[in-house]
Amino acid sequence: MLKIEKYLQENGESKTNTIAEHLGLSLARTRKILSQMDSLEAIGTNTSRRYRLKNNSINRVVFKKASFLNTSKISIY
């Protein structure tokens, strides 16, 4: 799920098939994962649905990345 959050942080709103292709997963598996993620919001319906990070999720991804790198500075965009 962190890979999806990172992808959306870097690429913005994305369709299910774009996310699935990036992750190398089937559309069905990607849809299931996306539907279970509280950090995302869905925009649109069925064929035009796109996903994006909720505002508080962006901060969490940056913090996790900074923690992983063991840096003392955290940038919030």
Describe what this molecule looks like in 3D.
With 77 residues, the chain is of the alpha+beta class. The protein has one domain: Winged helix-like DNA-binding domain superfamily/Winged helix DNA-binding domain (Arc Repressor Mutant, subunit A), CATH 1.10.10. Helices cover 55% and strands 13% of the residues. It has a 3-stranded antiparallel sheet. The two termini are 20 Å apart. The mean pLDDT is 81.
Name the average pLDDT: 81
Shape: globular
> Any idea what the radius of gyration is?
13 Å
Stretches where pLDDT is under 50 for at least 5 consecutive residues are none
- Describe the sheet with the most strands: 3 strands, antiparallel
Number of helices: 4
* CATH homologous superfamily annotation: Winged helix-like DNA-binding domain superfamily/Winged helix DNA-binding domain
Strand ordering within the main sheet = 1-3-2
- Assign a percent range to the helix content: 40-55%
Question: How many distinct domains?
Answer: 1
CATH architecture call? Orthogonal Bundle
CATH topology: Arc Repressor Mutant, subunit A
Distance between the termini: 20 Å
